[in-house]
Amino acid sequence: MSTFLAQVEACLNSRPLQAMSDDPDDFTTLTPGHFLIGSPLNAIPKTALDDTAVTRLNRWRHVQLMRDHFWQRWAREYIQSLASRPKWLKSSPAQEIGALCLIKSETAPPTRWPLARITSLHPGDDGIVRVIAVRDRSIDQCFYV
Known about the structure:
Residues 58-136 form the DUF5641 domain. Pfam families: DUF5641. InterPro entries: DUF5641 (IPR040676). The strands form 2 sheets. The chain has a 4-stranded antiparallel sheet with strand order 3-4-5-6, with no helix packed on it. The protein has a two-stranded antiparallel sheet with strand order 1-2. By secondary structure, it is an alpha+beta fold. Helices cover 32% and strands 19% of the residues. The longest helix has 29 residues, at 54-82.
């Protein structure tokens, strides 16, 4: 159980709070981990399970299942709560060129979601921003917001 709680703690304390600089090429962020240990926390690495006793393996799988359930709820409940609900009625104040954003990935845990910077805003005919262009370390992409 303590392993599971440590993984949840690492996920919660590694979420980005604020960009460290306004430099468009700098993707470092201030996290709760900075207040705890002075640097960002990293997620706990997965270990190989091949040479493990069956009872320990079953216990480890149970912890992994609990962690995966937590990440699914994290993405479904917490991350969704950060999104503004009336998105089609008005522009969100967080949509600024140069602002940092997270790119949700279905294949990676939340602690490994890439950070990107907003490079341009694309308003609709009514002037409300519905598409943003972002750039991370490797790609430029457009997303509906």
